[in-house]
Amino acid sequence: MTKSHWAIFTDNNSLKGDFIHSLQKGANNDLKELKDLNGALFSKKVLERFIDEEDRHDTKVINVGKNQSVKSMSSGEQKKALLNYLLSLNPDFLILDNPFDNLDVESQADLKVRLNQVRMDVIIVQLISRKEDVLPFTDRFAKLTGKELYFYDNSEQLTPIELPKSFDKSIPEPPFHYDYDKDILIELKGVSVKYLDKAILQNIHWSIKKGEFWELRGRNGSGKTTILSMITGENPKGYGQELYIFDNKKGSGESVWEIKKRIGYFTPSITDKFTGYHSVEHMIISGLTDSIGLYTKPSEIQKRLAKQWLQLIDMWSIKDHLFHDLTMGQRRLIMCARAMVKHPPLLILDEPTAGLDDQSAALFAALVNKFAKASNTTTIFVSHRKEPGLNPDLIYQLEVDDQGSKGYVIKN
Ligand SMILES: Nc1ncnc2c1ncn2[C@@H]1O[C@H](COP(=O)(O)OP(=O)(O)OP(=O)(O)O)[C@@H](O)[C@H]1O
């Protein structure tokens, strides 16, 4: 019998966790046909749980028979491994929570082919925040608002995206001056990286200058994280190579702490570190002190700066709200402003829009455009999607081949 497949749209206001939980428990009254069936969940959180188990107990579950740890796989490789494992459990339905996030175009296509192959055997319930992610064979549509499910005949009936007004206030001034005045911040001259016998990067030349706005693009596994982690000092592969970070050759006794001081870094998982009760205002101020939370009374200058940033992102009226009570889109904007507040010489935004709905992603891109143009900070935005509205000056494109990825500079 042909099965029906669902696309359930979610946005910042959807109580997605509760919905997933009720589906898995067979307690959801809206999708009655799934009630007595056996469901499996494909989500980022499930993947993280397997990675954590592997880290702590050395248990292999989704990568049985493979030499590589799940953590070191690219996003495409991780998702493939998770899907194969879940399908081996023979579920009646599969809940896919934003399955295409973090995947490049080719890996998205691979995943779509695989899902198309299994759609006769398993009901697919897709929870998605981007319209372009709807699987072509989907025939049932709904939107989750709060905990209510509203049904539609097709995805076109859902509300169109309203593009945000661009931020009309100016970017607040830098709070202090960094003692780095050279034009080139980062330089890779013929850098190559191998893991075991596998070539990952091949003869990479990339010169990153003051004030530039870059997008780093490349398919899953092309080596984007490898390059970024060599820059931030977390990956030793750069030692002994012609890699210059703030004018210091890698491995020449440079201080990792000095490097980190000059880099603002944001990736969505950083948000998870802030588990305590922090107000919105304190979150911004903690960007000036590099701390998780605030342990001393903020100065008037710090408070004034936080006010300017919150006015810019239109959140001054909620300055006393608790960060963890906000929607995901609001939290991301705050975290982004938090990374910008010091005007670091280099700002790295690693897949910052993953999991956001169209509207929140557009707002986020507008903030990044504004900051990148109006500040002296060099910005590197890493994303798999061509982010609508993002307007970088330059693109560093990694192209994979058998000898590892090569890099090309494209002027936008
Ligand atoms: N410690 C490691 N050991 C073995 N292989 C590794 C290790 N770290 C990364 N790799 C491999 O290097 C390649 C590049 O990985 P990297 O994470 O840099 O890619 P990426 O472009 O950031 O991918 P994604 O977009 O999926 O995050 C992948 O094939 C990955 O499996």
UniProtKB/TrEMBL annotation:
Domain (ABC transporter) ranges: 186-412
SUPFAM superfamilies: P-loop containing nucleoside triphosphate hydrolases (SSF52540)
Keywords: ATP-binding, Nucleotide-binding, Transport
Keyword Translocase: no
Pfam families: ABC_tran (PF00005)
GO molecular function, one term: ATP hydrolysis activity
Family: Belongs to the ABC transporter superfamily.
UniProt cross-references to PANTHER family, sorted A to Z: METAL TRANSPORT SYSTEM ATP-BINDING PROTEIN TM_0124-RELATED
Record protein name field: ATP-binding cassette domain-containing protein
